[in-house]
Structure formats: structure tokens, C-alpha cells
Amino acid sequence: MTLDRFYPIFDHSDWLRRMLPLGVKLVQLRIKDQPDDAVRDQIAVSRELCRDHGAVLVVNDYWQHAIDLGCEWIHLGQEDLDDADLKAIRKAGLKLGVSTHDDDELERVLAMDPDYVALGPVYPTILKKMKWYQQGLPRVTEWKARVGDIPLVGIGGMSVERAAGVLEAGADIVSAVTDITLNSDPEARVRAWIEVTR
Ligand SMILES: Cc1ncc(COP(=O)(O)OP(=O)(O)O)c(N)n1
Ligand SMILES: Cc1nc(C(=O)O)sc1CCOP(=O)(O)O
Ligand SMILES: [Mg+2]
């Protein structure tokens, strides 16, 4: 399966309800600091919304809910991977996307046979505090050479204006949060993203 090149990330299923009708085909639900039952409910709603719109849903962090709810994709970062039951995840047929930020992390995840590898932050991000400031485009090119046929996701400080450069540098997919969610017209921004990535 070829994943769409535009990969927005949202923190509530309401965002998916708004954005999927515009043509989003790959989307991550990334919920933080919510009660567990609320998270589960939102994953279930998002799964249905994505099914209705022919889109791929990636569940961030909550791999057990993803298994229980019959989801198809999860995204796990390095610390998530410390606690996750990879055997159970694979047994359930879940596809796995992983985060990387340096050489050691990349070596670690390549041994896990991931279904995509994310590299970040390509540009500085305002979404969360990170140890890394920015990887830059040459690092995207290096990562693509190292991951080979595994799809490479560029994340961190992405914008409509930066997307083409990141794809030209070697990313297969570009992922964005605040460029959309903090925009005064998120729908128009998503349309612009779709235009530059298809
Ligand atoms: C596509 C994509 N790339 C990286 C991340 C970050 O995952 P992680 O390092 O586990 O951090 P949190 O998102 O859980 O704060 C991601 N979610 N998606
Ligand atoms: C969630 C996340 N993970 C990153 C990583 O590098 O692993 S950067 C990031 C935030 C992306 O948000 P924005 O598009 O607003 O910069
Ligand atoms: Mg995580």
C-alpha cells in the first residue's frame, strides 16, 4: 500500500471530522493528557471516520487500544517502544510507524522492520520541547539512503511552503501539526497541502 504524501496530525477526532471530507487520506490521532476512556472513544470514532472516507488512520502511542479496536496502524516513539509489546502488535497485524532523531535510534528501529520511519524535527517545532533543534534537509537525504524502500516521513516545523523541498530532499511523506491547527483557516490550509503534495 502506498501512503499519501500529506500526513496531518490532530489531537481530537473532531479535527478528523472536519478535515477528512477535504480529501485527507493519511492522518494521525495524537491525543495527550486525556482520560483513558475518552482516548478510547476518540480512537473508535476516528476509525469509523477514516473507514467512511477511505483514509488510513494512525493511532499515536495507544497501541493496546489500537489492537482492541481493530485499527491498522500505530505510531510509536523511542520511549513508547521501551514499553510496547511488539510481538502482540505484530500478531494483531498492526503496521508500525516509528520516530527517529539520531543514528542510534535509526539503528534500533531498522531492526524492528518498521512500516515507515519518521525523522524529526526537520525544522524547529513549536509543538513540543525536544532535545534536537533541527535536522535540516541534508539529513533527510541521508536518512532516505539509509532506510531504502521503507517510507520516510519528515516531521517538525513543516509548512506548505517547505513541503516540496522536504520531498525533493528524499522524504516520501510530510507530516504537519501547527501549520494547520494554528492557521486562521485550517480548511484552506489543508486544501493547500493537498495541492502541493499530490
Ligand atoms: C509522524 C510522527 N513522527 C514523530 C512523532 C513523535 O512520536 P513520539 O516521539 O512518540 O512523540 P509523541 O508524538 O508521542 O509526543 C509522531 N507522533 N508522529
Ligand atoms: C509530534 C512531533 N514529533 C516530532 C519529532 O521530531 O519526532 S516533531 C513533532 C511536532 C510536529 O509539529 P509541528 O508540525 O507543529 O512542528
Ligand atoms: Mg509517542
Q: How are strands sequenced across the largest beta sheet?
A: 1-2-3-4-5-6-7-8
CATH superfamily: Aldolase class I
Main beta sheet:
8 strands, parallel, barrel
CATH class: Alpha Beta
CATH architecture name: Alpha-Beta Barrel
General form: globular
The helical percent reads 40-55%
Keywords: Magnesium, Metal-binding, Thiamine biosynthesis, Transferase
EC number: 2.5.1.3
Pfam families: TMP-TENI (PF02581)
Protein name: Thiamine-phosphate synthase
List keywords for this structure.
ThiamineP_synth_sf, 10 helices, TIM Barrel, thiamine-phosphate diphosphorylase activity, binds magnesium ion, 18% strand, alpha/beta, eight-stranded parallel beta barrel, single chain, binds ligand LCLJCK34, 8 strands
Helices and strands, with pairings:
Elements: E1 6-10, H1 13-19, E2 26-29, H2 36-53, E3 56-60, H3 63-68, E4 73-76, H4 78-83, H5 86-91, E5 95-100, H6 103-110, E6 116-119, H7 137-147, E7 152-155, H8 160-169, E8 173-176, H9 178-181, H10 186-197
Parallel strand pairs: 1-2, 1-8, 2-3, 3-4, 4-5, 5-6, 6-7, 7-8
The structure holds the ligand Cc1ncc(COP(=O)(O)OP(=O)(O)O)c(N)n1, ligand 3NM and magnesium ion.
